[in-house]
Amino acid sequence: MVVLTARSENTKPQGRLTMQTVEIGSETLCIRSLDWDRDRFDIEFGLQNGTTYNSFFVQGDKTALIDTSHRKFQELYLDALTGLIDLSTLDYLIISHTEPDHSGLVKEVLQLAPQVTVVGAKVAIQFLQNMVHQPFQSLIVKNGDRLNLGNGHELEFVSAPNLHWPDTIFTYDAKTRILFTCDAFGMHYCNDYTFDEDSELIEADFKYYYDCLMAPNARSVLSAIKRIDKLDVGIIATGHGPLLQHHLSEWVNRYQQWSQEQTKADTLVALFYSEDYGYSDQLARAIAHGIQRNGVAVELVDLSDAEPHEVRELVNQAAGLVIGMPSQANQNAHAALSTILAAAHNKQAIGLFETGGGEDEPIYPLRNKFQEIGLTEAFPPILIKEPPTQVIEQICDEAGTDIGQWLTRDRTIKQIKALDNDLERALGRLSSGLYIMTARKGDVKSAMLASWVMQASMNPLGVAVAVAKDRAIESLLHVGDRFVLNVLEEDNYQSLMKHFLKRFSPGADRFAGIKTYSASNGCPILADALAYMECEVTMRMECSDHWIIYSSVQTGRVAKIDGLTAVHHRKVGNHY
Ligand code: FEO
Description:
Elements: E1 17-25, E2 28-35, E3 40-41, E4 45-46, E5 51-59, E6 63-66, H1 74-84, E7 92-94, H2 100-103, H3 106-112, E8 117-120, H4 122-132, E9 137-140, E10 146-148, E11 154-159, E12 169-173, E13 178-182, H5 199-214, H6 218-228, E14 235-238, H7 248-264, E15 268-273, H8 280-292, E16 297-302, H9 308-317, E17 320-324, H10 331-343, E18 349-353, H11 363-373, E19 376-377, H12 390-407, H13 409-418, H14 421-428, E20 432-433, E21 435-441, E22 444-450, E23 453-457, E24 462-468, E25 482-487, H15 494-501, E26 516-518, E27 524-526, E28 531-543, E29 546-558, E30 567-568
Helix pairs in contact: 6-7, 8-12, 9-10
The structure holds MU-OXO-diiron.
Residues 97, 99, 101-102, 164-165, 183, 239-240 line the site of MU-OXO-diiron.
């Protein structure tokens, strides 16, 4: 017999990893793992407010645990869980999807609850079998299937593929009107509030999360919203951040509106990959991030279960195609590749990447076929021979940026021509200095010529830099990231400016042939700079097509005390 004791332990951030357990409905608990300091999900997804991993427990006559937690919470989570319930009597473990931030402790729960039946989509159960390497009882569920726990808790499952993995299911409990959605409608936001009382506090994180995780699957978001429309939902219990209750329809409407905008975007890239093969998902998302940086929409499509008519329709609509090589043995993917080849045309851009599964379809024969049709290669094939590193993710991000820039080149030219003469000349009178920003995070380094730079505060010392949204270096300029601002010298800037204005292919070393030494924050200082400052990003402000990066300045030096900063005078103000 399970004893259900709800207790609330609102905790303070000093522990950095803490737990919170709250009753959120009749016989329903939320067990939140609070990860206060997590600053990144994948390379492209910088976090400012940490995150939480939310797990849930429902007690009818039978009991169900919905998702677990991240491995880093092993001790804390299992302590909390075993303090609440007797795991040897747990009936069901429902897996919303198998990404490790929610299923990282499934193996440990199975060891404590060997009698439990694991409930999930077919692909999720297959994934788990490979993850836990031990036998377990399972129940495969499809859209509309129900599981009666008794005492009014009849659970209904809603298939929500791609939100955010292909195996995602939502779970709805009609008794409490709670819809458990895992990643969907979540946000990376960690605080003691269990619910969304203060929508203003969290709306920026809600949007950022949507952009990073959900926008590339906008069509899947719309399908899921259609499926849950018939349910009478009172709470959306997400897997990350606060649960949604106080502004529920507003949050759902935003997802719907943003997804409709995405699917109507002028320029679209169809990104085909095989989600459960190799490192396809991770690489595809890094490429998608680079593409979206240019305001181009991306639609991710799993080659393994793509329907031919959907593939054809998407290829017809897309201005660019990106394909991650599936396994040679994947029959459905082969058929989908043939459909793509038949529908592709010479006005499109193409990019190909290996997915590192060991049995990848060879990349070059496919590349030749696309070249015969006349597609423009937007980036050279990305060849993966080992598990992806930060550097490989950065290459993918930069490759995505390249195809996005190629597809928006006409738009950029139109914008340059759009201003009237007087206004563009007046704006051109705004002069500025010339600088090279250099950034490093782990093994990834990048650099950018910057001219829109100004001192922005005196106490503490701070500078502001405007960085165009389509710059790949933007991934390295999230809050907490560090960079060096190198000041170019009036009589000695031409060769550095020319070097850093060059077009670099994805992953190319920006510093090859340039003399540098390392700053105390790890970023490169250019030996020929007049001065440098070591900076740490403290704030980012979104300004239309640029990010304003406000940073505190920690230290700096001047090489020549009488040297003057190179100044950039422009004739017109509608480009740099
Ligand atoms: Fe929060 Fe897709 O895992």
